[in-house]
Amino acid sequence: MLAPSLSVGHQRQPLHDRKVAWIDTHLKNCGNDSHSVVSGRPRILLEAVCQGRLRQVRLLLDAGVNVNCKDLDNGQTALIRAMFLDDVKLRRRTAKMLMNYGAKVKLVDKFGRSALSWACLLGREDMVKLFFSHPEVDLALESIDSEGNTNLMLASMSGNVNIVKTISKVFRRNRLDVNRVNNRGKSALKIAYSNTFTDCAEVLLNEGHVTPCADETNLLREAFSGSIGQKKNKPHTGLRQNSCNLPRLFGLYTEQLTNSYPRNCRSGGGVKYSTY
What is the pLDDT of residues 200-224, one digit of tens each? Predict the structure, then answer.
């Protein structure tokens, strides 16, 4: 699991060590900023979510606390904070309760990340399934965080192949750009490859129809050549190796590059090209 501090440089600080202010989204547009900062019960709601106190969460919501209030420090809602719960059952019960009370998945924090974005980054496969099981909910699939990452890029960072497969299919169905690059010039495919998540890279090529660029193909060729050398020097043990299947992955790269050429080039016309 990828810790959030690795991606945004934000270290999680115990809530009891600092004061938390909230922005009430119901009052945000009232024209008076002094009334938008809320403390008290909304702060307790955040603490209750982080500590998994479901009974207290329900009591606060029944008492009328706005489920979509935001922490003024980092802009995170209670639903976003639920993504950080490690216990799978507790995380799912908390998220379902918050959504039943009207929690919005599309709301983003100061890093530009929604609850879905954090679920992709943290590898919360159960949360991704939960969100997509509610087709009426606005998931803000096209959202881009402050570092230029799409949800597909964040999924590639997690290394969870099932999440990458789900987001890839959704991106294709909604005609979202699967080849987009972030502020560091990295695409979802390059992120997956640089982290050696070759199974995720294969899904991006096969399911997401990502088109690799020239430098990505060169990197893969080097890795492919290195794997051949390792196989020659490695004794045969008779056991099935858990390899990343680089030859097949390289073939997918080649196929994608070939299909990316215009048809008039492939049909002749005196133009010669190479997949390398």
Answer: 999 999 988 888 875 655 555 554 4
CA dihedral (64, 66, 72, 76) in degrees, to 10, reads 130
Assigned token pair, 54: 């479901």
Nearest Cα to Cα of residue 12 among 87, 73, 68, 77: 73
pLDDT at 157 over 80: yes
| 181 phi, psi to nearest 5 deg | -115, 150
**DSSP single-letter state for residue 1:** -
Chain position carrying tokens 């080849």: 179
* Cα angle for residues 104, 183, 192 (degrees, 5° grid): 80
The helix/strand/coil state of 234 is coil
3-class DSSP assignment, residue 56? helix
What b-and-e string marks burial along 255-271, b requiring 16 or more CB atoms within 10 Å of the CB?
Answer: ebbeeeeeeeeeeeeee
**What's the rounded Cα separation, in Å, for the pair 225 and 256?**
20
Q: In terms of Cα–Cα distance, which of 98, 85, 77, 76 is closest to 124? A: 85
Please report how many Cα atoms fall inside a 13 Å half-sphere around the Cα of residue 169, on the Cβ side.
6
> What's CA 142's distance to the chain center, in Å?
12
What is the pLDDT, as a whole number, of residue 2? 46
Distances (CA, A) of 64 to 28, 32, 45, 130: 17, 22, 11, 25
> Cα–Cα distance between 126 and 88 in angstroms, integer?
8
Three-state SS for 22? strand
- Which residue type does 23 have? I
